[in-house]
Fold this sequence. Notes:
Elements (H helix, E strand, L loop, with lengths): L9 H24 L3 H22 L5 H25 L4 H23 L10 H28 L3 H21 L4 H24 L11 H26 L13
Helix pairs in contact: 1-2, 1-3, 1-7, 1-8, 2-3, 3-5, 4-5, 5-6, 5-7, 6-7
Amino acid sequence: xxxxxxxxxxxxxxxxxxxxxxxxxxxxxxxxxxxxxxxxxxxxxxxxxxxxxxxxxxxxxxxxxxxxxxxxxxxxxxxxxxxxxxxxxxxxxxxxxxxxxxxxxxxxxxxxxxxxxxxxxxxxxxxxxxxxxxxxxxxxxxxxxxxxxxxxxxxxxxxxxxxxxxxxxxxxxxxxxxxxxxxxxxxxxxxxxxxxxxxxxxxxxxxxxxxxxxxxxxxxxxxxxxxxxxxxxxxxxxxxxxxxxxxxxxxxxxx
Length: 255
């Protein structure tokens, strides 16, 4: 089958960051404001994620709307996993961040040992695709825990969190352009987009008394979802016009 992962372009990073923001604000809205609770929200989103992943796995090539639907749902589920551990079971963010980091390292180790590559440009078999989505889900859970650890437990706050994680992503990209390993720098940046998106979501949605800008979960989620849909539609339209099935040059193109 053809590669099942999108081109790594500016649109890719924008959609990815906005997806993580929607995961943060959307999960909070459903669990708290709608009153579904963490367990019910997790069950609903988990079911929708399974359905979306089935569609993704059944496809023989990259289909933008299916892929990004999976990413948005993975973002919500990843947030729910971390929140359930922290709020429901009282597990320390230090512990959950460490556990998720070890789990991700294990996935990468098994993936590389099995396939001899972690490149996202070679997701052309079912096994590689399963490794890929396992890694993606873990990066979201890890990013949520690490973001909460930095902004809440360590007291950095939402504004500093956005600046700090944004700066770390910029460093990863600069390292790539200076000759660092493309696969390593891509995954480092990919992991960091989760805490960046979470910090951005909290900054926009939380009340001013909590250090946010007070736009609320609904407004933030709806605006970002509209932008995501617009960008995915543009990507799909461009793909239909050009008939591209292979990645073009872009940030981390060799990843």
